[in-house]
């Protein structure tokens, strides 16, 4: 099997991580593209002693860290959420956020993350705690949950409330979701894909976004269906079955990049 064939299944998830890290689809995809170009230009330098996914993320981090840490995220014509993300990224220490996303969102062990960022596992654990502390200091938000499975909805509601946020409603259909969003405007939406009446959470989110801007986290058992390479794609996406830490990390990151949660 060629190196390209080995890496192909991991690219949607690297792109998800890159967007969560930068807060921008365009920005994240640019770093993934640079990563692939570097691998194509020098395939012999690809790490041969680790799992292909780990090696892929290692190359990505080498490129992202060198350019980001030296120059900061700079995109021409940035506005809205992208501008907020750039302003905050310029101030926030990158390593804690990387450690949190790599463990909670991407599922790497602290040993793996230590390899990726060049630190000892104990230092990675400290970085995760630092990131959580920084993120939890943000302004609280009102959250709309769009989920038709009662047990999952209750679990998500508990996670949201444990983080100090307020749940405005739990909607089970597209119609319910739009009505609840219009009744009390949320600061964050957590949306499942398939809803109770066979309506689509994606369509519900589109209807809501047509009325006002709000960060959205999609929840799905099939993330590949949303990470197709076509635009627009969700910046924040978690996979069922999910870990509570994954949901917490996604919520915190989504609010971190939203201009309504704190001044940029």
TrEMBL record:
Annotated InterPro entries: CheY-like_superfamily, PhyR_sigma2, PhyR_sigma4, Sig_resp-reg_PhyR, Sig_transdc_resp-reg_receiver
CDD domains: REC_PhyR
Residues modified as 4-aspartylphosphate: 192
Residue ranges occupied by any Response regulatory domain in the UniProt entry: 142-255
Pfam families hit by this protein: PhyR_sigma-like, PhyR_sigma2, Response_reg
This protein's UniProt keywords: Phosphoprotein
Superkingdom, natural source: Bacteria
Biological process (GO), any one: phosphorelay signal transduction system
Protein name: CheY-like chemotaxis protein
């Amino acid at each position: 099997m060629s190196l390209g064939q080995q890496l192909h299944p991991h690219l949607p998830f690297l792109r998800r991580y890159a967007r969560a890290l930068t807060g921008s689809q365009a920005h994240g995809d640019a770093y993934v593209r640079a990563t692939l170009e570097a691998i194509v230009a020098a395939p012999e330098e690809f790490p041969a002693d680790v799992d292909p996914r780990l090696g892929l993320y290692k190359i990505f981090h080498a490129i992202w860290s060198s350019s980001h840490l030296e120059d900061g995220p700079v995109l021409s014509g940035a506005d809205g959420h992208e501008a907020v993300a750039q302003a905050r990224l310029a101030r926030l220490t990158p390593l804690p956020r990387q450690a949190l996303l790599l463990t909670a969102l991407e599922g790497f062990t602290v040993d793996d993350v230590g390899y990726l960022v060049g630190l000892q596992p104990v230092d990675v654990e400290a970085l995760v705690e630092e990131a959580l502390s920084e993120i939890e200091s943000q302004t609280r938000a009102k959250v709309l949950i769009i989920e038709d499975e009662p047990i999952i909805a209750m679990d998500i509601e508990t996670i949201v409330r444990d983080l100090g946020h307020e749940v405005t409603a739990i909607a089970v259909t597209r119609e319910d979701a739009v009505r609840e969003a219009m009744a009390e405007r949320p600061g964050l939406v957590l949306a499942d894909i398939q809803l109770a009446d066979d309506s689509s959470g994606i369509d519900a989110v589109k209807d809501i976004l047509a009325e006002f801007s709000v960060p959205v986290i999609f929840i799905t058992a099939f993330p590949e269906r949303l990470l197709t390479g076509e635009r627009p794609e969700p910046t924040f996406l978690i996979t069922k079955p999910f870990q509570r830490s994954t949901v917490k990390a996604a919520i915190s990151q989504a609010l971190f990049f939203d201009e309504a949660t704190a001044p940029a």
